[in-house]
Amino acid sequence: MASESTTGPYSLIPLPEDLKESKNLPATIRQLAPTPSFLFLKVSSLDMSMIHNVFIRALNSIHLNAPKVTPLDMEEETMFPVLEKKIAEISHNVEQHKAFHDGMDAFKQYILDVKAKKETYDGEKAAELCKEFAKPMVQHLHDEIPTISPENLSRFDDEPETLQNMYRKVEEHIKSQPGKLTVFPFVMTHHDFKKAPNWPPVPAPIRWFARNIAPHWNSSYWKFSPYTSRGESQTYNPAIMA
């Protein structure tokens, strides 16, 4: 597979070079967390960078692979209202969300219509629909990181319970969501484990399940991912992976 800088039009968020050692993962505000982990989401700039790169890799996969296939908001409700009390910059993130919602909804509706056989799949159309929302979405994914920097979040040092309550709601929301057999392998097959082998910060049994069991369901989905569930690079080839 080509280097990540050439595997799609959307650039990844830069990460520190020393992520292979868990001791180098910045603690930021994790000590305030009510539990050791939040499955695949934690409110720190590093963890948010990781999950945002997962999304960006997925957009690049759609851009690259959609034409090869032939026919045969938790943040807004839970995090933003809390953070914008002391981080005024967060309001820009809210506006950015609005900028790509309509395009994302149109893409989702098209995929649902294809699945329901109301439309015939057209790879070029899928790629174009993705392009409509991908650029503002990727811009948002990059811009959001500085607004939740440790420096900004330190503004809550005088009321740590506010962040604790927010974290708790985020965790409850994630645990309540269906689709563990799709969300887990989606994250695992769009994350660069060579760059950050200790992420996501989940208990070992969940990590083992996510990498060894969950991908066997809906296995046809993950052939489009940039990585296998074992973290090996792969490129979709319709001639051998159909």
UniProtKB/TrEMBL annotation:
This is Hemerythrin-like domain-containing protein. InterPro entries: Dimeric_xanthone_biosynth, Hemerythrin-like. Gene3D superfamilies: nmb1532 protein domain like (1.20.120.520). It comes from the Eukaryota. Pfam families: Hemerythrin (PF01814). Residues 74-144 form the Hemerythrin-like domain. The lineage of its organism: Eukaryota, Fungi, Dikarya, Basidiomycota, Agaricomycotina. It comes from Panaeolus cyanescens.
